[in-house]
Structure formats: C-alpha cells, structure tokens
Amino acid sequence: MSAMPPLTDLDARSAVGDGPAGEATAGRVAPRGVDTTHGAILYLDDVTVSFDGFKALNGLSLDVGVGELRCIIGPNGAGKTTMMDVITGKTRPTSGTAFFGQNIDLTRLAESEIAASGIGRKFQRPTVFEAHTVFENLELAMKADKRVRPTLFSRLTGEQADAIGETLALIRLEDAVWREAGLLSHGQKQWLEIGMLLMQQPLLLLLDEPVAGMTDAETERTAELLNTLRGRHSLVVVEHDMDFVTRIAGGGKVTVLHEGSVLAEGTMAQVQADARVIEVYLGR
Ligand SMILES: Nc1ncnc2c1ncn2[C@@H]1O[C@H](COP(=O)(O)OP(=O)(O)OP(=O)(O)O)[C@@H](O)[C@H]1O
Q1: Domain-located, residue 16
Q2: Tens of pLDDT along 78-118?
Q3: Of 167, 200, 233, which closes a domain?
Q4: pTM for the model
C-alpha cells in the first residue's frame, strides 16, 4: 500500500494539467444559471413515457428540494430507471414536464447539455478507467468537465490538487491514491466513481443502486458517504436494499414508485407502514 504524498506534491505527478501560465482555472465553474429560488432543484410534473403504448411512466409527479437526499424505491419495472433516463435526457417524455430548477427544461436539452448544467448520474455498474490510478481517474473526471477551461497537457493548480485531496478523503481512498483502479474492490470502484462525479461539482447527483454487490462493511461506508453529501449536494438514490435506505433516509422523504407513478411518499417509517406499499413491494 503506497503512502499518499503531501498534496503539494500531487501536481508534480500530474500527467495532464493546467492552461497557459497565469490563467486561473481553479474556481473555474461558470455559473450554470439554475434557478432554485423556490427551494426545489428538480420538478417532474405529470410525466408519461410510452413505449409502443406501454406506459413505463404514467403521470409521474415529483419535486426534490435543494440539498435533499431523496430515496426512490419500488418493485422491478416500477419506472425508476426510466425516471432517471428522463432527468438525464436519455429518454424523452411522451408528455409532461421535467425542469432542473425553475428554468431549465430538461426535455429540450441534449444529454451532454444536461450533464454540463450540473446533473451527474452514476449507473449501477462502476465505470472507472481501470488502467489508470485513482488519482488519475479523479483528475481526468475534473478535466472532462465541459465547464472547465481546456487544460490538457499542463499541470494542476494548487486549488485543483486540493479538490482532488478533499474528494479522496471523502471517498476514503487516500491510501489507494496511486493504485490502479482495476485493482480496487467493487465497493472502492463505486466510491471512486462517485468521487469522479463529485469532481464535476454536480448540483444534482443521481445514483442507481449504489450498494448492489457490496459487502456489509462497504454498504455501511457508502451510507456514511451519502450522509456526508446530504446538504452539500442534492441527491436522488434508487435502491432496493431497505436497510441501506433506512440508514440514508433519516427523517427525510422516501418516494415509492409503482407502475410508473408515485404510490406513496413520506418518511421511511410512514411508507413501511403503508398497506399499499407492503402489498406491492415490501411484503413480497
Ligand atoms: N426501451 C423500452 N422499451 C420497452 N419497454 C421498456 C423500455 N424501457 C423500459 N421498459 C419497461 O418499462 C417498465 C419500467 O422499467 P424501468 O427499467 O424503468 O423499471 P425499474 O423500476 O427501474 O426496474 P428495476 O428495479 O428492475 O431496475 C418495465 O416494464 C420495462 O420493461
């Protein structure tokens, strides 16, 4: 296990880097113009998605508040993935509206534009660059950020190195910083990918079954990580592991989807006691 060098040395290890001398690129994120003055970051209103007449989403309405960690649960086929696909522009609603803040109409933007506007998505399977180190993965993620001035073939600024150091601490991969990502455990790869998303400073983070395939210890650490992110980012987490959902939901809202729309919404205790939720999901 290689020890992590002081962060001041990190830029010296950088394979790619900053722009011409004197051009500040840290603190680099342009205002993205997401209007959240009404307190919500995501508004889905009466969204329907039909696949050849079959309604994967059927009049789905959902608001997520700024800084909220919203858990989405529901049986297989309830429409959870389709909902994420609508938010990220992968699937267009047949009808209904989807807004990021009050002003950004997600149904009119390309997937890349939505990502650039501040929505990050993590799919179920980790997709890290296996041949690169943990550090390089975080660095590449930061530099893939379209809002950052192109910085290939130059060095990291101190601020960028600090940002990587902070993320490493958050995802607890400081001891693995120079390890090839392909050598990490499944859980570590998942954390690294979350870290890669964080490097792009998303306003809204979508996580699809983040603890699937994790050990109990990894699941516990992931719960701690998400609890740390609560309030700093807005998060939507789709998950089937109810113990995990209980741990990250706290007293916050859990939304239960069923047949493409919201069946119930409330605290974990409230939805767990809901007879309809027990019938279609929890009681199975
Ligand atoms: N491209 C598609 N064409 C036809 N039907 C689709 C398509 N995508 C999804 N569906 C259907 O829409 C429904 C909702 O699927 P979706 O994947 O959103 O559910 P889910 O809640 O994410 O399920 P799971 O928990 O199994 O991941 C399912 O019945 C699925 O078969």
Answers
A1: no
A2: 999 999 999 999 999 999 999 999 889 999 999 999 999 99
A3: 200
A4: 0.85
Compute, in angstroms, the gap from residue 240 CA to the centroid of ligand 1. Answer: 15
Tell me which residues have their CB closer than 6 angstroms to ligand 1.
Answer: 51, 54, 56, 74, 76-82
> Minimal CA–CA distance to 57: which of 107, 102, 115?
107
For atom 17 of ligand 1, the residue with the nearest CA is 81
Alpha carbons 186 and 213: distance in angstroms, whole number: 8
Give the distance (Å) from ligand 1 centre to CA of residue 78.
Answer: 7
Say if CB 158 and CB 11 are below 8 A apart: yes
- Rounded to the nearest whole angstrom, what is the distance from the C-alpha of residue 57 to the centroid of ligand 1? 9
Question: Relative to the CA of 74, which ligand 1 atom is closest?
Answer: 21
Q: Are 33 and 109 in contact (CB under 8 A)?
A: no
Tell whether 271 and 157 lie within a shared domain.
no
ipTM of this complex > 0.90? yes
Tell how strand 119-122 and strand 204-208 pair up. Answer: parallel
Instruction: Give the pair of three-digit tokens for residue 200.
Output: 């792009």
- Within 8 A by CB and 6+ apart from 255, the residues are 62, 70, 71, 72, 73, 262, 264, 265
For 33, the token pair is 């113009």
Distance CA 57, CA 261 (A): 6
Give residue 250's domain range.
Answer: 35-117+202-283
Looking at the structure, tell me whether residues 255 and 155 fall in a common domain. Answer: no
